[in-house]
Amino acid sequence: MQNNKSSEKHIFGACLPAGATKNHYKALFPSDFPLSPIEIPPSRDFKKHTADKLLNVAKSLEEKSAYTQDSIVLFGHSLGCGLALALANFIAEETVKNPRVIISGSPGPGNPLITSNVASESIIDSLIEVFPTHIEIPKSFERYVSQKVVEDFSAAKNIYPYALPAVKYVSALIFGTDDNLCTSQDKEWWASHASGAQLYTYKGDHFGYMKSQTLAQLYRNVIIKQEYSN
């Protein structure tokens, strides 16, 4: 008997930015979001046996979406874009699904124009803005985040070779006008290499979706639109 799961939510893959840990996107994609986010492990988890792990995740996403959708949307922010593209490559080559990739605030694959130190400082600054004013971020937590960023940057070198062939699957680009980690040259790179993608810009910085519900809703709308576009 055929197992009909058409009533289930559509899934999409959510790839974490550098330094992020589990549930980073929990506020961005709350329980009432009409799609079900599958949080992909951070880039640092793919440093060893990269191809095997990418294939395993691609197959898992195929299985989770077997009865609900023909395509799989992959969302990546910042360094997570490389992982989203690499997974798109494996989904296209090793599964029956069609990948669509949403790129947010990223330099061109394999060409990071920022250091791990700069990225760490930006993350900590954003957390300070998000946390209540009476809460001070412990120095030990800052060191923890910085270490995870270094690990993610190191792993990205192994991921990017699989990401480059998948730029053709980019269907949407999201950039902040005040993003100091994503330069105008980066935006031009994406505009020229993913010329068919829809472009969305917002007034805000690199982690705008963490600080503004209006920007968070923009992200949600883009993902929903990409999921149900033909």
UniProtKB/TrEMBL annotation:
Q: Which positions fall inside the Thioesterase domain?
A: 44-219
Q: Which Gene3D superfamilies match?
A: alpha/beta hydrolase (3.40.50.1820)
Name this protein carries in UniProt: Thioesterase domain-containing protein
